[in-house]
Write the structure tokens for this entry.
Amino acid sequence: MQQIERGIFYEDSFLGVTVGGIVFSHGTIMIDAPLRAEDARAWRSMLLNQRGGSNRLLVNLDSHPDRTLGARALDCTILAHQKTAQVTRNRPAIFKGMLIESGSSWEYYPEAIGMRWATPDITFTNSMSLFWGGPEVVLEHHPGTTPGAIWVMIPAEKVIFVGDLVVINQPPFLAYAELEEWLEALELLQTSYSDHLIISGRGGLVVKDAMRRQYQHIKNVMKGIEKLAKRNAAPEETEGLIPSLLADFSFDSQMQQIYAQRLRYGLHQYYARRYRPTSTLEQPQIEEEEEP
């Protein structure tokens, strides 16, 4: 567990996403959930040892399964953006897996099948402030990566948790993105919050060069997509963009296949949604199981 400022922590060793914790006298605000139940228990224990108040609140930065599947194991009230809540409430009670690989962490954790979703208890639209016995915690809606993506900000400490807006040495998830809004959020981050400590939802502490690389990568994605659109290419042709886009990152060769699949799925979905809206997309299919 890494301490950023007094009472503010993150942990990037769990399967899934980088999680955060803000410990106050009133209680603990947790940011995203570890995917595995045993990791969730370990994370709760780590934060409990910081001797904050007894209350717990979980904030989901978006609706991605990697950060929402493990929410139930944290056994607390869940807060998210309204659009994230809409996605999670439309899911079946029991997760049985998706038919299409998207390069997500949950796909390499067989025990994810059969987990029960937990839906948000509290939602908001534009912004929301929390006062838990310490500095104000501000939640702000910043779509781009997904329609319901948010930031968690502690203005007095100049700390921001930005989820998948910036990911470290790996390609981002593109299937539900709006790239223009993504670039706007990155520009805001670089211009208005350049003196803040920024925590990625996949990789931990963000350096300025990582933000610049992320911005350029999204620009490269847009450029490649627009070239295909100008000649009315089929969505399947987005696969040709993968080699050059993977070259934007430095990562272990063992991740090559996973990251290529992440781009393959994301590019296809983004292009088809944007330029073939009347066609049938290969949306992830979740088999539904009713509550007993």
In short: Confidence is low (pLDDT under 50) at residues 280-292. The CA atoms of residues 1 and 11 lie 5 Å apart.
